[in-house]
Amino acid sequence: MPxxxxxxxxxxxxxxDGPVHAxxxxxxxxxxxxxxxxxxxxxxxxTTFLRCMAALEHPxxxxxxxxxxxxxxxxQARAYGYxxxxxGLYPWRTIAGNIKLPLExxxxxKEEQEKRVKDVLQLVDLEGFGGKYPWQLSGGMQQRxxxxxxxxxxxxxxxxxEPFGALDEIVRDHLNEQLLALWARTEKTIGFVTHSIPEAxxxxxxxxxxxxxxxxxxxxxxxxxxxxxxxxxxxxxxxIEIAHRVREGLRAGHLDE
Amino acid sequence: xxxxxxxxLVVVAAIVLFWYAAAVPMNIKTALTQAEREGAVxxxxxxAARRDMSAIALSLANPAQWGDTLVQDKPRLPTPDQVAxxxxxxxxxxxxxxxxxSKRSLLFHGWVTLSATLLxxxxxxxxxxxxxxxxxxxxxxxxxxxxxxxxxxxxPIIALxxxxxxxxxxxxxxxxxxxxxxxAYLSFFPVVVGMVKGLRSPDSMQLDLLRTYNxxxxxxxxxxxxxxxxxxxxxxxxxxxxxxxxxxxxxELPTGAVSxxxxxxLAGSYYGQTIQIWSALFAAAILAALLVxxxxxxxxxxxxxxxxxx
Amino acid sequence: MMELxxxxxxxxxxxxxxxxxxxxxxxxxRAVQFxxxxxxxxxxxxxxxxxxxxxxxxxxxxxxxxxxxxRFASSLPILWVDFVQTFLKGALGGYVxxxxxxxxxxxxxxxxxxxxxxxxxxxxxxxxxxxxxxxPILVMWFGFDWQSKAAVVVVMVFFPMLVNTVAGLRExxxxxxxxxQTYAASYGxxxxxxxxPAAMPFIFNGLKISTTLALIGAIVAEFFGSPTLGMGFRISxxxxxxxxxxxxxxxxxxxxxxxxxxxxxxxxxxAVTFWHPSxxx
Lengths: 257, 310, 281
Known about the structure:
The structure holds three protein chains of three kinds.
Chain A: E1 4-15, E2 18-30, E3 35-39, H1 46-53, E4 61-66, H2 71-76, E5 80-83, H3 95-105, H4 110-123, H5 139-151, E6 157-161, H6 169-186, E7 189-194, H7 197-203, E8 206-211, E9 216-222, H8 237-255
Parallel strand pairs in A: 3-7, 3-8, 5-6, 6-7
Antiparallel strand pairs in A: 1-2, 1-4, 8-9
Chain B: H1 2-37, H2 47-50, H3 55-61, H4 66-69, H5 80-89, H6 92-96, H7 106-137, H8 139-152, H9 161-170, H10 176-199, H11 204-212, H12 217-251, H13 261-271, H14 274-305
Helix pairs in contact in B: 1-3, 5-14, 7-8, 7-10, 7-12, 7-13, 8-10, 9-10, 10-12, 12-14, 13-14
Chain C: H1 2-23, H2 30-54, H3 65-74, H4 76-111, H5 113-127, H6 135-142, H7 146-169, H8 174-182, H9 187-222, H10 231-240, H11 244-272, H12 277-280
């Protein structure tokens, strides 16, 4: 059974300038353990699609299931962790306090909370920063803390909406590397929105190319790259070949207009 | 926009309804006493028996007298229509009779208060802006004066008002000037604080840009600091004009002034003329709303002309 | 004449000292930041003293600071009962009731969009009105004692507090609300863990504005009738008797009470909203 499955998914916003087709005829199934990237120009519906999976948007047509049930039910069952473009940590809580936030809401015991905070801090390489406040940390560290927050309650699915978009290239490379290691260790299913071609190719097992007006999927590219990926893999011919295909896909979507 | 309009309308209608509903228990005791004197049967009989009963219980026991509660001469709570009629009779109706500025006209009393408010507000604003400019350009003034200007915002300096009136009266100054002085110092401090904040609002990038042009201090002031201070200035002007109005009204309380909205409030409370108090209060509210509204309009016009907002 | 020359000298010395301090290398230190306004204030008081003495200004126009200080020291019991009546009972009582009521109504207003649309413009409108004018009405309803003063204070602080709290409760960004959605958090959880803490800077802004309004309301309401004690009562009767030293003594009390009240609220704010950029600077 696929973890996430969309059939003929449609989402139309009614605006003053008439209807806007944010998503139209979107079909996709994501299997357990997949790392799926969504790439495309702004307005192509990649973030909207991710928000549909999280029940933050409600489709106007078609069907989507998460773990075999509706996204709303999956949300109620706390089936996924969500990472936004900005870290969005609460400034009045320490890093540890921020990671505890979902754990408190979901009713974990105090000891369990402490243990999990310790574990995920280690996972994102932030040991010793639990007592700091977010504003005492760099942007990259804040974003790592927000990933730790999404990992804390150990949902099988991780949805990430341009999590590294606001960071500089060097920090971003570093975090990409760490994210891959984390994915390999935890075997989570990851949905990842980005507008960077190298990032999408480097991270994913599958790359979903989308294009706007109406927002739709134009290509799905399976990556032949091995699961073990050092940063240098980006200079190999295979990597460049896939990046080329993604670029072609984006261009084709663009020419349709 | 439309939805907001309806929501406001419903809320205002609810307030008016509640007001009428409250007028019944508020005025029931006097209404019952009066009705009993005129021969109506009231339960329980006799004012003494009713003295310790709750107003709500009395209202429920005597629904026949509800109408009477809404037309009292000196009610504890006048009804909206009583206040509206009084407002009209002491303003619009007087104008129609050609006596717009007679002693009984709220327009006359409103004008007395308004003129002192505006004079004081003008003086306070000009002085406040000047001091703010000084503070921004002189470090010693900033360090000496600014903390006191901020502290002044936390203390009830309006308590000085009665003394100013009386002291000036004793040296022979009366009329508009003492009230204007109170209005002036009440509007002065908010303007200083707001204007300093505004003149300091340009960020260092904008200031550095002017430095690369080798602009003079006065060029920097007229082309950058002053325009960017306007939103802050207007925000504090709105606070200041409301404070000025309160100052002028409070300035009319001691010495038993005979004209002005404050005098109407005081006279009304001496003689239990509640309808007069309420209409004076509404006149003051309308005046405040008009003044703040006019400032808002000037702000929009000015900012649009200067291209600060689209 | 001597005193006038002295006044001029003191002024020049004080200002000169401040100018030197402001330009000196230590001008950024905390001590100097505190010292400069203090010197300015002290200079002002000294000049006032010298001018009043030098020109023989009569007491009924402007008493000298030394006279005021003496009156203050000799009238402590009276000043204390006035303080209790006006500040502790009238202002503080009304402040607590008014702010608490506004807070509860704000939660309701925030919960129902219709109320927010309808009540907020009305609240903004009322917040700009000369509400202190309701004093004669409320004195008529609640009697001469402190209850009517507290009622005036309740009406005065209610709307600024309401408007600020409602604005604060909307402060949490859409993204942070979405985050709460992804946790399937209940209304109560999202309220206490996200929206209430995010609203704190606004709530404290309302609380700080209200401190001054509370004192103004309590004092001015006494001008419309009070028992024979209270700061407003003392000011208006002493003005009538031309006992200006007593008036000034009461004003000193009002100033101390006002700034201490504000200061305490600001200290609590600093402790609660330590994380906010405005507090970190």
